[in-house]
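User: Earlier you gave me the apo prediction for this protein. Now I'd like the version with galactose-uridine-5'-diphosphate bound, so I can compare the two side by side. Same sequence as before, with the ligand SMILES added.
Assistant: Got it. Here's the input I'm using:
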Amino acid sequence: MSIVLVTGGAGYIGSHVCKALASSGHRPVACDDLSRGREDHVRWGPFEQGDIADADWLASVFARHRPDAIMHLAAYAEVGSSVTDPSPCYAANVSGTLAVIEAARHNGNCPIVFSSTCAVYGDAPALPVTEASPTAPVSPYGTTKLIGEQVLRHYDTAYGLPSVVLRYFNAAGADPDGEIGERHATTSLAIPKAIRAALGLGPVFKLFGTDYATADGTAMRDYVHVADIADAHLRALGHLLAGRGSLTLNLGSGRSTTVLELLEVVEAVTGRPVPVEPHPRRSGDAAALYANIDRAADVLGWTPGKSDLRSIVASAAAWIEKSPG
Ligand SMILES: NC(=O)c1ccc[n+]([C@@H]2O[C@H](COP(=O)([O-])OP(=O)(O)OC[C@H]3O[C@@H](n4cnc5c(N)ncnc54)[C@H](O)[C@@H]3O)[C@@H](O)[C@H]2O)c1
Ligand SMILES: O=c1ccn([C@@H]2O[C@H](COP(=O)(O)OP(=O)(O)O[C@H]3O[C@H](CO)[C@H](O)[C@H](O)[C@H]3O)[C@@H](O)[C@H]2O)c(=O)[nH]1
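And here is the structure of the complex with galactose-uridine-5'-diphosphate:
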């Protein structure tokens, strides 16, 4: 059994990671300021409430729990609003991440699994993107995540701090047991917005951008089930605790989906039309991204077994119907 600090453990992906850790016999300690997370989604271990940028608080959490590893998911995670209001994004993702990394360094080089994103690639020149593709983020959000990656790389070289950087593509879906799912006070994400529009629980779906250079003119993404992402965290933990060294890995389904294709699946799953309103492109959005996932398969033996789009949308719809508020 390992003790694992999970920053952002009350958030969407972090709560699924905590559940997966506990299901595998580990002890997750959720660390979250509840700015976007929910305390009622912390169910699989102790909860520590605080701001990751607060070095004294982090030191006390390390002293209380003496973790074997950290999974660092706490972040400001919205692409669009990072463009209009970058300040909170830099505070959490740069100052906060540096404080977490410093705490790890001062606690015996505690290994870190870091939540990065496909947004570090920006508008990739070739698809699918591999981990060796150039990084050129087109949003403050992507830039802050790339800075976190670079700090980790430099700290490994200089101080021997090991890390696994997981570049998730678009995390989606909900816990297959229906216990938890995405439940922000407001969401910016395409799948919950489309489902809510179809079910009459939210406004008409604003389709951001119909003039991209894709087959149907809408942006292309790679949606990967949150349960598959959680599974990759367990494998990354095993890798680090076995002393196998630092890594950077894409986590996607390996398949591309345009926004219009996504809406078709939402309509098929819910049995209802999605009311759609075309809008200009959203600032900070890349045109098209999907992942080459060979490295995660080779190194961690990971496959995104739950990530076919219909299963993703069905699990998200079941969660929204169960917990519509
Ligand atoms: N959702 C996606 O598709 C996606 C894709 C790629 C990467 N990621 C990354 O995955 C991680 C989790 O994302 P999510 O979708 O679960 O978002 P989320 O907002 O649900 O989770 C982030 C959590 O961090 C907490 N938090 C934010 N700032 C904090 C701070 N200063 N101190 C302590 N806690 C703080 C929030 O309260 C929240 O619970 C983020 O790092 C995000 O950048 C997400
Ligand atoms: O109401 C909406 C919401 C989204 N979209 C479009 O749907 C696609 C997916 O958008 P999401 O907001 O669901 O996801 P993003 O790709 O913007 O962002 C997500 O994936 C990113 C990586 O691309 C980040 O890591 C980020 O944390 C995570 O929220 C984009 O083309 C977006 O413009 C719409 O058309 N209408």
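For your comparison, keep in mind: Residues 140-159 form the longest helix (20 residues).
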